């Protein structure tokens, strides 16, 4: 089974993302206006948004007929995409359905880390103002963090700029790059190899949780001349990514996904583990445009895909 898009929680009133980046629009909008929240005072116009997730153990499909024994958010790797707008008040609720200690650190939150971890079978709850726009990781904050991320407890949060993106509407595509450490057994099940995790020697590098997910038979469709906006997260846990699209020069790259940090005219951009970026581009003619991690060993291990441009 292949997941053709990342499930996510959207922002009410925002343009619906298109193509393979389309969100499932499962936002839980509280509607109340908060006066004071952890970390600051809410502006009078702030929307309140609640994201409810669960920590679950599950064997998840990772493409090529393989499964991975994972710790997950909502039974998926990566977890659902969370979307908010700059200035929103965000409430995180994690239900732990396992006997392990788990938590959730949303890196858009500027609050004390003591809020991020819960005891086995205990929930995690906290609230924060989404003050800075960008593409942020969320991941388990229970020790050892390396193991929890390597086992699948990560996802993307997008905080949209309060005034929108400088170049206006676009086709949104969400890509999460990550690593799997371990080879499949006779039952096609991958059990994480902790020696490889510690040595940072992955066997697979994935986009959106599948090996070679967006191949020639399952490309991401884009339109000639239309602005494409890629929200990119390198979930790691350990290797840098070097995002590249063949035949494309990025018109704008926002490091961290923040419009205050814009760069132009780049073809390949390194994104450290745990960090995000936004890439914008247009294509001028139909065809297949391969996107990869330009660390070619990572491409060989599964980090490649196809944008198919149509008129």
Keywords:
24 strands; 3 helices; single chain; Immunoglobulin-like; 311 residues; mainly beta
Care to describe what's here?
The protein is mainly beta. It has two domains: 8-160, Sandwich (Immunoglobulin-like); 171-310, Immunoglobulin-like (Sandwich), CATH 2.60.40. 5% of the residues lie in helices and 42% in strands. The protein has helices at residues 145-150, 194-199, 296-300; strands at 8-9, 28-29, 36-37, 40-41, 48-63, 66-73, 81-85, 89-96, 105-106, 124-129, 134-139, 154-160, 171-180, 189-190, 204-207, 220-223, 228-236, 241-245, 252-255, 262-263, 268-271, 276-281, 287-293, 304-310. The strands form five sheets. Strands 2, 5, 6, 8, 10 and 14 form a six-stranded mixed beta sheet that branches. The chain has a six-stranded mixed beta sheet with strand order 15-13-17-22-19-20. A hairpin with a 6-residue loop joins strand 19 and strand 20. The chain is globular and about 55 Å long.
- What count of structural domains? 2
Tell the overall outline: globular
Tally of separate helices: 3
- Low-confidence parts: 11-44
Number of strands: 24
Radius of gyration: 19 Å
* Overall average residue pLDDT: 89
| Residue share in helix | under 10%
Q: Give the DSSP E fraction (strand runs of 2 or more residues).
A: 35-45%
CATH architecture of the largest domain: Sandwich
Alpha-carbon distance between the two ends: 29 Å
- What's the CATH superfamily of the largest domain, by name? Cupredoxins -  blue copper proteins
Helix and strand composition category? mainly beta
Q: Largest sheet, described in full?
A: 6 strands, mixed
